[in-house]
Every structure is written in structure tokens, then in C-alpha cells.
Amino acid sequence: MVRSALIDPRITPTMFDSGHLLPYGWNDTLSDTFDSYPDDGREPGRVIRVDRGRCDVAAPAGVVRALAGEHTLCTGDWVTLHRHGDDIAVADLFPRRSAIVRSSASGRSEGQLLAANVDTVVIAAALDTALDLGRIERLLALSWESGAQPVVALTKSDTVQDVSLATAEVAAVAPGATVVAVSADTGDGIDILTAVIDGTVALIGPSGAGKSTLANALLGEDVLATGRVREGDNKGRHTTAHRELLPLPSGGALIDTPGLRGVGMWDAADGIDKTFPEIEELAAQCRFADCSHEAEPGCAVQGAVAGGELPERRLTSYRKLIRENGWIASRTDARLRAEREREWKTIARWQRQMYRSRGH
User: Fold this and answer.
1) At residue 301, does pLDDT exceed 50?
2) Residue 350 belongs to a domain
3) Distance (Å, rounded) from C-alpha 124 to C-alpha 240?
4) 183-222 in b/e burial notation, b at 16+ Cβ within 10 A?
5) Local confidence band at 90 (pLDDT 50, 70, 90 cut-offs)
6) E strands, the chain, where?
7) Which in 167, 195, 235, 318 has the greatest CB count within 10 A?
8) Domain identity same for 22 and 104
9) Which residues fall in the annotated binding site for GTP?
10) Statement: residue 105 has pLDDT above 90
């Protein structure tokens, strides 16, 4: 990636040229937000990559390297930049209108930001191996919760004979989402996928799903490194090491992400509801409002399973995500309570010390 020179310190918010920011999603709403910040030489930018306390930011003069400062940034964030001598630092973080968050891979009770200000989430699932419907449902819940519109891209469609069967199978577990079978090698379905995505697009999925190859097809050139999957287990190498935002030739921008081994729920109750709308509708008909859909009498959900209207696998997946989300929520609440208790103890110690010093 070619980086520009440092920002010209003579540029002021009323002088900067937004032309370089337009391919990254700059619009009137963002301009109004920027105008609310101090008029002291700051200029807007969008984070395209974050790496160890520094970030690459698309700025009016080009892509610059900036210090993240006190902000926890992720790819897709809109920020203001300020010059400090020879350094450029992030001064302000625009409010995020959407964010893809999963539970931390470390297992700690905190969320991990994957991408911000995303309009469309493309979930990549490869057809050259058995479809994992549970993983697709998990990624759908994550996507719905972010506030973006999910699209499922069934990659490597040239490796199967009956594409329509696989598409129908996935569409059955993805209500409200568009499902498109694509092949980056033959170009099949790329035009359809390009037509249904909009704005800033985040590409997520496991390693080996062909995300980088698909991203290159959408970008129109081989910008991102790609790698073959291993024979035997169909697992791919992590050819994408960082999340990176790139302008799309058709308009909008693309965020390519590393393969996700684990996708834990993080405060995703609404996303789960949108992923399983038929279960939510059935649950409203249960005899008891707090029905767990296990063995309670008058359970409409269990009745639908017994009558063949609802696949048991679908209910099992729903229960798993609900339990996981509830467990994460309880851990988060416990962490917040512990933090508040520590703060009060610190205040109490300070007050005791103050009273003793006054007594002396």
C-alpha cells in the first residue's frame, strides 16, 4: 500500500478536499458530525487498518500512519486527526452506527470488535465441503446484531453439481438474508453478489472459505494474498492476517477479515431472535411466558418439532446460542459489578486518608 506524506499542517476543516474520502464512504451525515468537533486544524479520516497502537487512516491528502492514542479503534472507524509536531494522532472517534462484535477469543468477559460502520456483512461458506448450518446460523446472529444486513455467499459453487439444492438448504436457515452461490474462479454469481451488497461490506467466515479469493473478485484485481486449503481436512491457511478496508470499484468499501475459528456470542439476543424468527413466533403461543421449550406442557415449539414443522436441529442450535449468550451476559454483569466495587473501595480509602490527614 502506498502511503502519502504527513498531513499538511496548514489544512483546516474548512479547507480540506473530501474527494479522497468519498471512495471510503464519506457523506453529508459524516460531514455534519465532523463539523461538531473543534475547528482547530483537525481533519476527518477513516481507519483502514489497525496494528499495535498505530493505524493506517484514509485522510483527505491520502493514506497516513497515525497514533491511536487513548482510543480503542477498529477497521471502519471514522475519526478526526490532529498533528503534533511530526506525528499524527487520532483526536476523536465518531459515534459508531454499527459494529460487529464477538466474545473475546481469550475467553475473557469482554467483546472483540471485528469491524465498525458496516452496512452489509457477507458470510462466506464453501461448497467444497459439508455445510455447517450451525456455524452459518451463528454468523447470521452476529451479523444481525451488528445492525448490518447479512448476505450468505456460498463460495466455490463450481465444485458441486446441484447448486440449487445447497442454496435452498442454506436459505431455509437464513430468513431475511440473501443467499448467493458464487465462484471466484469462473465468475458465476459475482454480478449478483455485487448487486445485493451495499455501502461498507465486511467479509467474514472460517479459514478455507475462499474469502480472500472472493474479495479479489469483488475488487477486480488480485490485491489480497490467497492460499490453498490443506488436503484431508479442508482447512485453510490464514492468508489474511489483519482486517483491512479497501474501496470497491462498484462503489462502497470492503473489509476483509482473517478466518474466524471461534465465533462467540456477545450481547446478541436481538441477533438470535432475527436468526430464528419462526421459533420466536411459536414461543408466543406457548402456555407459559417463561417456557424454556424443554418439557413444559403446552409448549408450541416442542409441538412444532413433534409435528415436523420445525427441524429439531434448528431448535438445538437456537438453544445453544441462547445459553451461550446468557452465560456471556452473566459474566459481563459480574465483571461490571466487580469493577464498581473496586472503584468504591478506592474512593473509600481516599476518603479515609483525607479524614486522617485533616485530623492531623
Assistant:
1) yes
2) no
3) 14
4) bbeeeebbeebbeebebbbbbbbbbbbbbbbbbbbbbeee
5) very high
6) 43-51, 54-59, 62-67, 78-84, 87-93, 99-103, 111-116, 120-126, 149-155, 178-181, 200-204, 244-247, 253-256
7) 318
8) no
9) 155-158, 205-213
10) no
Question: What range does the domain containing 80 cover?
Answer: 18-93
Tens of pLDDT, residues 108-147: 556 788 999 999 999 999 999 999 999 999 999 999 999 9
- pLDDT confidence of residue 131: 93
Annotated binding-site ranges: 155-158, 205-213, 286, 291, 293, 299
Would you state the cell numbers that stand for residue 277, as one nine-digit string? 424468527
Say if residue 236's pLDDT is above 60.
Answer: no
Residues belonging to the binding site for Zn(2+) are 286, 291, 293, 299
Q: Are residues 114 and 208 in the same domain?
A: yes
Instruction: Indicate the residue among 218, 234, 256 that finishes a domain.
Output: 256
Co-location of 150 and 204 in the same domain: yes
The total number of structural domains that make up the chain: 2
Q: Tell me, what amino acid is at 129? A: T
pLDDT at 354 over 70: no
Task: List CB contacts of 294: < 8 A, sequence separation 6 or more.
Answer: 302
Say if residue 312 is exposed, middle or buried (CB neighbours under 10 Å; 0-12, 13-18, 19+): exposed
Same domain, 108 and 251: yes
- Cα gap 188→159, rounded to integer Å: 12
Kindly report the pTM of this predicted structure.
Answer: 0.81
> Under the phi-then-psi rule, with left for phi > 0, alpha for psi from -120 to 50, and beta for the rest, what region is 254?
beta
